[in-house]
Amino acid sequence: MPPVTREWLQAAGGSVPDIPPFPELNYIGQHHGTYLIAQNDSGLYLIDQHAAHERINYEYYYEKFGKPADASQELLLPITLEFTPSESDKMKDRLHWFEQAGVYLEHFGGQTFLVRSHPFWFPKGDEKEIIEEMAEWVLNERNIDLAKLREKSSVLCSCKASIKANQKLTEKEAETLIQRLAACKQPYTCPHGRPIVVSFSAYDLEKMFKRVM
Asked: Which of 42, 80, 181, 202 has the highest CB neighbour count under 10 A?
């Protein structure tokens, strides 16, 4: 079951809860190459840099997958995919779903399929792995619809394209990441539903140090 995201709710016609505006923050530093530390007058904030970048990338790719065919480019060297006999039979009937994501495959005989084109904005170097994971999802999903496909494809691309934990960032890179996160429609959770930001109010900090009761 995919996470129930803001975009999924909108596509399904459901109500979308109001999201509070992202706080204005001053960057302090980075902890263990994984968490960004920031502050404002209200308190202290820890930001998971990978989850933050995933959210930024997810919203970018979600918009892109709204018009994937417009950005599909033909490959000079097709990507070859192999499947089991049962998977191959199912793939033949589900190729049209890949086209909805801007990925054009053709059956090459036996259990072999060729990817002839895909959107040029797929994360570089991860194109084959993304399409393989898309294929796994398409083959295993019982009830495919365009909203689910757009959601899943966006998650796959955002995961591959995001910075990882234990990756050092310069002060400028960290500040830019926070600014881009603040501009997101849903800056508080990643596409998988994990929290991006953990905060401690000034009162929380004083209480932890027993400065107040």
From this structure: 181
d(CA 73, CA 6): 30
User: Residue 140, CB half-sphere, CA atoms under 13 Å: how many?
Assistant: 8
Task: Tell me how far apart the alpha carbons of residues 60 and 54 are, in angstroms, rounded to a whole number.
Answer: 10
Which pLDDT belongs to residue 29?
Answer: 97
For residues 138 and 153, the answer to whether their CB atoms sit within 8 Å is no
Distance, CA of 13 to CA of 138 (rounded, Å): 23
Best CA proximity match to 103, nearest among 141, 140, 64: 64
> Tens of pLDDT along 16-74?
467 889 999 999 999 999 999 999 999 999 999 999 999 999 999 999 999 887 788 99
Sheet hosting strand 72-82, strand order edge to edge: 72-82, 112-119, 104-109
Q: What is the distance, to the nearest Å, from the Cα of residue 192 to the centroid of all Cα atoms in its chain? A: 8
- The tokens 């090459």 sit on which residue? 108
Prediction pTM value? 0.86
Reading the block at residue 36, the tokens are: 């960004």
